[in-house]
Amino acid sequence: MFYTRPFTDVPFFELPVTIREEQAVIADSTFNLSAGEVYTLNVLEKEVGGEELSTLLYLRQERFHKMAFADSLLYVNFYNLSAVGYVDAHPEPSAMITNYDQATGTAIKEHVNIYYSLYRDDIPYPFTLINNQRPRIGFTPVPGHQLIPLQQLTRSQEPIVTPYNTIPLFLPDDTTGNILSRHWVRLDIVPPGGGGGGLIGVSDPSHRLFAPANGTIVSLTNLSDEGRTQLYTGGSGNAPGFFLPSLIRQAASGPYRQRSFATVSTIEFINKQVYMTSVMKTYDPPIN
Questions:
Q1: What is the C-alpha separation between 240 and 107, in angstroms, rounded?
Q2: Cis omega before residue 126 (within 30°)?
Q3: What is the DSSP string of 34-62?
Q4: Residue 207, Cβ neighbours under 10 Å: how many?
Q5: What residues contact 277, with CB distance under 8 A and at least 6 apart?
Q6: With 60 as the cut, is the pLDDT of residue 198 above it?
Q7: How many other C-beta atoms can be found within 10 angstroms of the C-beta atom of residue 250?
């Protein structure tokens, strides 16, 4: 059971009785959970347009802990858990402040196509400050890895696990012996009919990356791991963007100061927000 409550550090049952009785129930349900299983729980807005807030408790039983994954691939699946009618009721972009930068968010359409593109991470390893400034991520497109279709995504609040898509962790021209991955991932999320060629203009002097009107960009970089600044993702003001941590995790392991590891990730779009959850295998601790 989920209640509204005052925004304080006081535990709910230590609040005065009069305040507790004034709080509204957001969602109430009963689930049977099995030992050893992994679940995702969300409180979702069910539908937009009613006089009262319509919510539901969403419980998805995950499968990744029972699946076999290759160490050389990144795995990611997607969900659009937005409320019914939200995209029509709130078509305008809204400002968001993240831990990294200021961005605009928009609700993605009921049906969209998702593409991935890879860009070179042209920065010396290990990541260090250059002239006391954080270096920017690279913007050079990787040939053969531009606008590769991943999947079609349809808005749904049914708690069904969607298939995982794969993206390479290392490229054929890797020179590190599959130790350090030198690229980052960008997603273009566009309505049917808006995908395909012409989405990206990397020749622009400002090195901005473009998406079509009504499209959305998601940049998955190492920004949150190594403290580097975020490449501008926009495009004539018509392609709201989101910033998320990289699908590639960097960590000291064995004799290496930094080594790249793949993750199994889930990206959820909920109204005008986007969330990512990642898990990874254990790895050898660093050797001092």
A1: 10
A2: yes
A3: -TT--EEEEEEEEESSSSS-EEEEEEEE-
A4: 14
A5: 40, 265, 266, 268
A6: no
A7: 20
**199-225: per-residue pLDDT in tens?**
443 333 343 444 444 577 777 776 544
Phi, psi (degrees; rounded to nearest 5) at 180: -125, 125
The token pair that represents 208 in the structure block: 């901005």
Contact 48, 84 (CB under 8 A): yes
Contact 28, 56 (CB under 8 A): no
Distance CA 25, CA 4 (A): 6
Q: Specify whether the backbone of 49 is left (phi greater than 0), alpha (psi in -120 to 50) or beta.
A: left
For the chain, what percent of residues have pLDDT higher than 90?
Answer: 35
122 contacts: CB under 8 Å, gap ≥ 6: 138, 140, 182
pLDDT by residue (tens digit) across 158-181? 999 999 999 999 999 888 899 988
Q: What is the dihedral of CA 85, 30, 153, 225, to 10 degrees?
A: 110
CA-to-CA distance for 101 and 103, rounded, in angstroms? 6
DSSP for residue 125: S
Please check whether residue 159 is in contact with residue 41, taking contact to mean a CB–CB distance below 8 angstroms.
Answer: no
